[in-house]
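FAQ
Q: What does a multi-component entry look like?
A: The components come first, one per line:
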Amino acid sequence: MNGTLLPLFVAIPLGGAFLVAFLGRYSRALADALGSAATLALLALAVLLRDVRGTYAIGGWPAPVGIVWSVDGLTTMMLIVVNTISFAATLFSAPYLARFTAKGKYYGLFLLMVAGMNGVVITGDLFNLFVFLEIASIASYALVAFGCEHEELEASFKYLVLGSLGSTLILFAIALLYGATGYLTMASVSQALAERAGSPLVVLAVVFFVVGFGIKAALVPFHPWLPDAHPSAPAPISAMLSGVLIKTLGIYALARLAFNIVGMDGTFATILMSLGVLSMTVGVFLAVGQWDLKRLLAYHSISQMGYVILGLGLGGYLLATGGSAATASLAMLGGLFHLANHAVFKSLLFLCSGSIEQATGTRQLKEMGGLGERMPITRATCTIASLSIAGVPPFNGFWSKLLIVIACFQAGFHGLAAVTLLVSFVTLVSFLKVLRYAFLGSLPEALRTVRESPFLMSLAMVLLAVLCAGMGLLLVGGAREAILQPAVNALQAGLEYARDVLARAGG
Amino acid sequence: MVYILCFALFLVGLYCILTKKNTVKIVIGLGIMEYATNLFLVLLGYRRDGAVPIRQEGLDPLEFLATAVDPLPQALVLTSIVIGLGVTALAIALCVRLYEKYGTFDVTEIRRLKG
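Then the predicted structure of the entire assembly, as tokens:
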């Protein structure tokens, strides 16, 4: 099977966004049903097409003249992650958004964001990447401001200014690459660049790309928008932003660029690793002192993104400097697996925070307490997610962190391994604080009447909690061969990517 | 030379975003940056005394390639202008709502979020 079904990944959410914005005006239940049906269909499609490798030429124009969409192992892994989280988030949205008025518009923006993210992951064309990136970004600016209160508008404006700055830098870099090579198809650009490595224009383009995607991924010197924007959005949107948006627009695009288009070299990989270590440590130390639950979670997103970039950077470093290929593969496996794991446990944590906020009306940890007996499901799922993010076995976060630490040791970076473990320990402390203040202790007088969340919200949380507990199995045998290993191979192939795509696209 | 002017315009926009306190002026800075990028894209395809990039009957393809301007950047710029319009409209809408809530356009007074 080739890529003929690919357009559905963009067509379903785009069509759904139009329908739901239009019909949602008449019936809120219909809006809920349409939103969930669209994301469920996408999830089913992503799982069914997990073995597809191929290209799709839009309008029948072959590469490099037309726009090419291409699928490899990394793409299919990202599609599964994105669509799993969006399905859980739509389930959660149905009861959670009952207090907002414009449900149709909410789902419309939500599906536009999903369309943008799927497009970013699928596309094999630089300018097309920019267009999808902007679709997802604009929808997310609007969703952050969805409540239209003081804080939400302020956060959204900050996010919009920094996000547009990033997008403009990315567009400028794309223009530079087009000027240097005369192509926009990623594969052709990559082949043309191989002949003129190290030209100053290309270096400038790469710097712009790193800053632009760094802003989108909220790596540490570029992070200030994230701790404002993610907590201000409605909880399911926070889950989407922290869970998948920063990964698809930031990490995925950066990895694709670094490994498959420009090609890794020692300096580039060192920059990525430094950004990773910086994000890890700064993020976690800013997080540990927070008392606003969602703000604390947002800072942890920055820190956990550091792990992903560290794993990928280390893999790239070993490949570029002729280190052990097995260790490089292990490091990248750890990075990508942590990306998938972080998507699951961080969106679960944000959903839990939404469930707590809806029940108690506050996000301040100091005003909570004793919620454990009143909200057993939230307590159980939140505990599982906290243990996952802190890296406690047997939950998924443990396995991916373990892989990264082992890879650091094998590569001889003992200091990096120590930092990784230290950050993991601080994360654990910070989440013990969350569990202690939210669920244990005595119930404040004002919260006597708190009740567990509605069924669909609990269902979404339990679904993600089961994934948290079970995703360690993805490392074993057939499951690893089916999902994770192809993604690692796609990155490890490096510049072979170009020949692969062009051979399929007949360019 | 002309590319350097383009880059200078880009930096003017960046300076505007970084130093101005008025939300509307920040949005204008974003606009300047976008225009600099669009200008750069169009200039990439420009060729002095170039022909219109429309193929005509009886024209040698090689000669056509040697004289016509590059039409692709023009298509890209159109797309990018439309995207810029969307971002600017949303940004201005946010400025208006911020003014309704806070009664000011000054970003130093719009700061409830911290930590």
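Q: Is there any commentary attached?
A: Sometimes. For this entry: Chain B has one domain: 2-50+59-114.
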